[in-house]
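Fresh eyes needed here. I'd like your take on this protein's tokenised backbone:
***
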Amino acid sequence: MAFEYIEITDPLFVQNLGKCEEDDYLMVRAKQYSHVPIKIPNWRPQAHCFSVDFKNHEKDLLEAEVYPDDVWVISYPKSGTTWVQEMVWCICNDLNFEAARTNSLQSRFPFLEASSFAPVSFNTYEYARNTPRPRFIKTHLPVSMLPKRYWEVKPKTIHIRRNPKSVAVSYFFHSERFFYKCSMDTFLRSFVREHQFFSPYHAHVIEYHELQGCDNILHLTYEEMKRYLPAVVRKVCEFFGKSYSKPELELLYQHLSFKSIRDNPTLNREKPNDPIKKTPFIRKGEADGWKHELTPEQIHMLDEWTKERVPNLEHRKLFE
């Protein structure tokens, strides 16, 4: 086996299993990682949270094909992934807004490992494999779990990160929309124990920023996109060797505005008369909404969590 599977015995997890209607989680650690070009001395990857479905797709993941003309977007969940995907797809496809508004983002930008953690009606690895080239691939995988071919090919990649408190709030509402039945406070206590899909969060971010010789990866933050989107767009255009006129870029900024993203049915996953709908998939799009949605105690808990998990002060700057 290329992965080690570890049962979660944490009392809070066991207590809430079933009550919150979460899946049957387990921790998965990569056992083959010497090919990952990381600068951290004596690095050994941590175990990451998945569902038992991961075991059924181990071979799919290990043998996933990667092509030189691929474009990948990588993130920890709820870090602004959808926004970045749409920006990247439009920039790389000559601002074809008509196609972007006609075809769902999921079809244009396959989620590689969705089959590894959620019950879906098709094999997402197979779907990605059969997507016409040049392919656009989304993944939340940590560096230790990327297909080995990724490191051989090194396709153009955007990595996006976001403030941990914003991620925590957005992840709760996202989970509540689809399956989660417990309170935000219960979710946050599970989150800081790394018992949500793709956790641990800090390790994911740090490891991507500690890669060496990976000029194929452009790092962005959600906050800089919110602060001044045109500067980010220029950076991404340069990264992909694209150039557009000012009027064309103005149309792109409009297409990427929060209102446009929220109202775009190819992005927001809204279904008419959806009986399980609680919170919109694209909710508020704020950079610091956590200030109004978290209690002082919850903010303190999340801040202390970051201090504990990130003792290196240089690394801690990644989470400001």
Remarks:
- The first helix runs from residue 11 to 16.
